[in-house]
Amino acid sequence: MLNYGIVLFPSKPFQDTANGLRRRYDAHYANIPPHITLKESFSISNEELPEMIQVLRDIARQCPPIDIHVYKVDTFFPQSTTIFYKLKENKQLSWLNEKLYQEPFPTDRAHSVFIPHITIAQKLQQAEHDDIVGQLKMIDVSHQETIDRIQLLYQLDNESWTVYETFLLQGQST
């Protein structure tokens, strides 16, 4: 059984922007590039993988490229000391998230509400969180781009994540 996850990666220039903060504040900086989690980590057997890949291909054929709009820095405090770039919700992101929590994918959710975001700080001590969250919230954030692929990732033994397969979003915008 391997751990898998399904994400969107923003453009390299925006990843560089996020990494400027992540380098200092994100305990998982070295494990995975900045990303938007569509489906949290889940474990499946090698036998289950081909069916999920086929379903991911079908989903990608139906879903058009996704316009994202990063508009502010926010935090999950008091639930956690995670700080993130918040994305404006949109139908395509919500639709993708819903599809990835239906059979044949595992349907358990760690979080009941889908909040599209790109993490920039996590696993902070509360004092450190309190010191930097105000500064980060003052950053003027306005970034828009279109993402045209989703990635199925798997976790390596050293806890880092790598791309297993990429799926081009081919649906037509309505």
TrEMBL record:
A motif (HXTX 1) lies at residues 35-38. GO terms for molecular function: hydrolase activity, acting on ester bonds. SUPFAM superfamilies: LigT-like. Gene3D superfamilies: Cyclic phosphodiesterase (3.90.1140.10). Its EC number is 3.1.-.-. A motif (HXTX 2) lies at residues 117-120. It is an enzyme of class 3 (hydrolase). Keywords: Hydrolase. It comes from the Bacteria. The active site is at H35, H117. InterPro entries: 2H_phosphoesterase_YjcG-like, Cyclic_Pdiesterase, YjcG. It holds the Pfam family 2_5_RNA_ligase2. HAMAP family: 2H_phosphoesterase_YjcG. Belongs to the 2H phosphoesterase superfamily. YjcG family. This is Putative phosphoesterase E2L03_13930. It comes from Shouchella lehensis.
